[in-house]
Design goal:
Blueprint lengths: L1 H18 L28 H16 L41 E2 H24 L3 H17 L6 E6 L2 H4 L15 E5 L5 H18 L18 H20 L15 H4 L5 H15 L2 H13 L18 H11 L7 H16 L7 E2 L5 E2 L9 H14 L6 H18 L24 H4 L39 H4 L3 H17 L13 H5 L21 H35 L3
Antiparallel strand pairs: 1-2, 2-3, 4-5
The structure holds 2-acetamido-2-deoxy-beta-D-glucopyranose (5 copies).
One 2-acetamido-2-deoxy-beta-D-glucopyranose binds next to strand 3.
């Protein structure tokens, strides 16, 4: 009798262990030297270059970690930081991820990132398995999801920002000396934020689906074989349902969150919340097999006239992803989903407008990047990667094979551009090739501690931020690689999200190398543009007089260099004059 009890206990213990976080590889996977990215592979499946890219893209998130760091940490130059976050409000908000190049923690883009990565891993999860990266995916997701759980201490309270942007902007330095205490901001029943509550619900629901191994159409998609944790999936689902209810029915009404927390407006003001409600309802419909929720999502799509605001997929606007998800659910589970044909038409109307360049919300740069006026100016790579990701995912659902090949072709061209097939010969991912951006806007990786000397002291980054996607080139396909130029050079959690999904997909199905393996050292240096960028950080590059401190330094450098050139030329001219005079030829 006690034998079977013991066996049972042992069995449950094993089940518990098996259900916990996956063991990380020992020795750990580490990014190879960037020179490895300039070598052709044998082009088999899984392609080692794609699986390395997936590993790099995940590794970036580890470098962004906040809080106490575990003994398994791989980024040797990172230290524990901001351990007191939340203390003033009697809530533990340590942990989680720093949002971008500085040290704030932002719930809206984090939740969007986790939703995007979980959705992608649900579709192309096998790619993580084939790259031996599933344990790192698990590690990356839990680091974010566990923090979101901490940030959601009761049904109708969600912390949405740690660290005030104004304070943040004055601190540029390492992780040991981040000023504290840091302010924290919440939404609640009387001061709600429909968008961020719904987006966070969507992240919890999408990731619950992943941990429960609920895949869509199983012939083309699959979750990672080893990533299953029923009890974690249940926990995530509970948070999703509470937050969805809070988003829908807060007594303060429905509103964008900067109305309740004006401090978020400086960096992540949201334009609307109908798309967030719809995507939350959809991921929940699929998590719970609930047709009523699918219909609620359709209701939001109509009520908030989302089809009229179908521009780009990003942390702020999820609308172009909705018809794709509506279609995926309708196809996989007709009992939950509605009219598949209607949603295919909606998805294809949007994709066709872009790939056929007719009434497109975007234009194509000369170099071939899809560019969304007004959005791409602050980060041009992310909208293109998100579009490439949606096209890839939707390509199994097209109504004709002609559309399928057009979509795949467009997706491939955008990804090729991002990975180096562009006028700069630069893959816009740090540390994957000798032509990768060398000066990403990241205080952690820079190693300097004076924002006034952001470009010069030190001139080179102290640490390589492997796997980080940068903002990207301007509308003239130019990339300057200037650290203070945040629209081009900043890195961010949401920038990397679609790269994970695309790299997983290519690992699992593509034998061809990523484009950058053809790029040898020095190619960017040959085409590096002169002058200054023209963007929000360098208005003087366009003309305007306003100079930031960093801008003044950059400008001073340019003036000094230009003066030296003029001086040099003048001296040479005078020399010629004198010599010619001596020779009597003038
Ligand atoms: C590629 O294939 C060749 C010939 O089969 C082999 O010698 C070489 O080791 C392979 N290289 C890699 C990186 O796998
Ligand atoms: C994954 O691990 C297996 C077993 O150790 C190994 O044979 C394989 O080469 C690895 N694959 C990659 C892409 O690293
Ligand atoms: C972490 O601490 C070490 C040792 O003090 C320091 O050299 C390193 O720069 C720190 N890392 C960051 C990102 O500040
Ligand atoms: C609710 O949130 C608002 C906005 O952050 C805040 O001003 C208010 O103090 C919060 N209410 C409670 C009871 O904490
Ligand atoms: C919101 O409130 C309405 C009216 O009380 C209720 O019918 C609905 O179920 C609530 N929605 C959620 C998601 O709880």
């Amino acid at each position: 009798m006690w034998f079977s009890l013991l066996a049972l206990t042992l069995h449950s213990a094993t089940a518990l262990v098996a259900a916990a976080q996956l063991a990380l590889p020992n020795p750990p996977w580490l990014p190879p030297d960037l020179s490895e990215g300039a070598k052709k592979s044998n082009e088999s499946v899984p392609n080692p270059q794609w699986s390395t890219l997936l590993g790099n893209a995940l590794y970036f998130y580890e470098a962004q970690r906040s809080g106490e760091l575990p003994s398994t940490k791989r980024v040797s130059w990172r230290n524990a930081s901001t351990l007191d976050d939340g203390k003033s409000a009697h809530v533990d908000l340590s942990g989680g991820y720093y949002d971008a190049g500085d040290f704030s923690k932002q719930t809206l883009p984090l939740a969007f990132t986790l939703m995007s990565v979980c959705w992608g891993a649900t579709d192309f999860g096998k790619g993580y398995d084939m790259a031996n990266q599933t344990a790192y995916l698990d590690d990356m997701l839990r680091w974010g999801l566990d923090w979101l759980i901490q940030a959601h201490p009761s049904d109708s309270v969600l912390y949405v920002l740690v660290g005030n942007k104004d304070i943040e902007n004055t601190y540029w330095g390492g992780d040991r000396t981040i000023p504290s205490p840091r302010p924290v901001y919440q939404i609640n029943d009387t001061a709600p934020g429909t968008d961020v509550a719904a987006q966070t619900a969507a992240a919890f629901a999408a990731c619950s689906n992943l941990y429960a191994s609920r895949s869509f159409d199983s012939s083309s998609f699959s979750t990672p074989a080893t990533l299953q944790d029923k009890s974690y999936a249940d926990t995530l689902l509970t948070h999703a349902q509470q937050l969805y209810k809070f988003a829908v029915n807060a007594s303060g009404g429905r509103k964008v969150y900067q109305k309740s927390v004006p401090e978020v407006a400086a960096s992540y003001a949201s334009t609307e919340y109908g798309d967030d409600l719809a995507i939350a309802a959809l991921f929940l419909a699929w998590a719970t097999n609930d047709a009523a929720l699918y219909q609620e999502a359709e209701g939001y799509y109509d009520k908030y006239k989302l089809q009229e605001d179908n521009r780009l997929f990003n942390w702020d606007t999820k609308t172009p992803g909705l018809p794709v998800l509506f279609s995926q659910i309708a196809k996989s589970n007709p009992n939950v989903g509605g009219n598949l044909g209607k949603w295919q038409d909606a998805a294809e109307a949007y994709f066709d407008s872009i790939v056929n360049n007719k009434d497109s919300p975007a234009f194509m740069t000369t170099g071939g990047l899809v560019y969304f006026e007004g959005n791409s100016d602050d980060n041009s790579i992310n909208p293109a990667l998100n579009l490439a990701m949606l096209l890839r995912r939707y390509s199994t659902l097209t109504t004709s094979s002609g559309k399928k090949s057009k979509y795949l072709d467009f997706s491939q061209k955008q990804l090729d551009y991002v990975l180096g097939d562009n006028p700069m010969s630069m893959p816009y991912v740090v540390g994957v090739n000798p032509n990768s951006p060398a000066k990403p806007h990241s205080a952690l990786a820079h190693g300097g501690n004076d924002v006034g000397e952001i470009d010069t002291n030190p001139e080179k980054n102290t640490y390589t931020l492997y796997g980080a996607v940068v903002g990207g080139p301007d509308r003239w396909d130019r990339y300057f690689d200037i650290r203070s130029d945040w629209p081009q050079a900043e890195i961010a959690l949401d920038y990397n999200a679609p790269l994970l999904t695309l790299a997983a997909m290519h690992t699992l199905a593509d034998s061809k190398d990523p484009f950058y393996t053809t790029l040898q050292a020095g190619e960017y240096d040959k085409v590096k543009p002169d002058g200054l960028p023209c963007d929000a950080a360098f208005p003087q590059g366009c003309k305007g007089p306003a100079l930031s401190k960093g801008g003044k330094i950059a400008m001073a450098v340019v003036i000094v260099v230009a003066s030296l050139i003029v001086l040099g030329l003048s001296a040479y001219y005078i020399f010629l004059l004198i010599r010619n005079a001596k020779e009597g030829t003038v």
